[in-house]
């Protein structure tokens, strides 16, 4: 195996694949990066227990200036190999395999020899049927992930809640995440063939990596579903993720359909107020901020206190408020995460009582995006 390639372009491709390589694994070869060199392309593969990423570098892509002298394959220690490539002195790098699975890396006046492994020992990628596929715009996919992943559980005691629930039916994709204290749900229209229905739970960590990769993708992302895997294809990259086993809890019944108190305000200005109030709440043991709404007086405020530091109280600028007077306490970190997902949009917050979960929705679109937060009992 021998090839020459533009170093900076090669680094970008390597960094994408590195997202799937874990430094801690029970399968030693998975700390490595698989390189398969063919006559007109290079296929890079990285994998761990959850995700596998495969990127193809084509000779026709002038950015890489790829010249293949001899095909072959090898597995090299991923992080060490990439650090070498990053620190090489020249714009061009040449890589060749000598006898005994050793890679000789040459650039300018520098030459490294790195021990590798037989590529035949690297686990094969999952077989994914290409017929059951769905297309989605990369910006929509990224937005859906970012708006729901904040509610993914970090606790392994209920593994199913560490994922995001994807359901697709009748041309609508619904994504839901919850950690039992908060919930995020987003609906988007997605073109599907007649009868296409999917119900899967994808690990939140997998989707976090995916959202970073599709940030600057041109063209749609293709999703292919199987019983235990999902494949996202975009550009020259394939992103495989395992699916979580089990049934996701029924969450639609958790979202209130009526309210006793409502308030409309700008998400970004309310976020700034929450962050100021949390300066004190973070110094207290319970980390709680209180929201007081008095529609009869057209007054709303947030407050927080710490026995050791002091207290804070701030009036809230609301577009409108209606219903019953209310005092409700909540975790400001949950509120902060929820507000960030709305950007600078106006939101409608709806409450049923001081001890019942409340919702945040866009003021101009109540049906397609909702954040739900469970209040904190303070007495």
From TrEMBL:
Q: Which domain of life is it from?
A: Bacteria
Q: Which residues form the DNA polymerase III beta sliding clamp N-terminal domain?
A: 1-126
UniProt domain DNA polymerase III beta sliding clamp central: residue ranges: 136-250
Subcellular location(s): the record lists:
Cytoplasm
Which SUPFAM superfamilies did the record assign? Answer: DNA clamp
The residue ranges of the DNA polymerase III beta sliding clamp C-terminal domain are 253-377
Kindly give the InterPro entries that the UniProt entry links to this protein: DNA_clamp_sf, DNA_polIII_beta, DNA_polIII_beta_C, DNA_polIII_beta_cen, DNA_polIII_beta_N
Which is an annotated Pfam family here?
DNA_pol3_beta_3
Transferase listed as a keyword: yes
Q: Write one Gene Ontology MF term.
A: 3'-5' exonuclease activity
- Gene Ontology cellular component terms for the protein in this record: cytoplasm; DNA polymerase III complex
What keywords appear on the UniProt entry? Answer: Cytoplasm, DNA replication, DNA-binding, DNA-directed DNA polymerase, Nucleotidyltransferase, Transferase
Q: What is its main location?
A: cytoplasm
A Gene Ontology biological process noted in the UniProt record is:
DNA strand elongation involved in DNA replication
Assembly and binders: Forms a ring-shaped head-to-tail homodimer around DNA.
Q: What does this protein do?
A: Confers DNA tethering and processivity to DNA polymerases and other proteins. Acts as a clamp, forming a ring around DNA (a reaction catalyzed by the clamp-loading complex) which diffuses in an ATP-independent manner freely and bidirectionally along dsDNA. Initially characterized for its ability to contact the catalytic subunit of DNA polymerase III (Pol III), a complex, multichain enzyme responsible for most of the replicative synthesis in bacteria; Pol III exhibits 3'-5' exonuclease proofreading activity.
Q: Which family does it belong to?
A: Belongs to the beta sliding clamp family.
* Protein name, entry field: Beta sliding clamp
Could you tell me which species this protein originates from? Limosilactobacillus gastricus DSM 16045
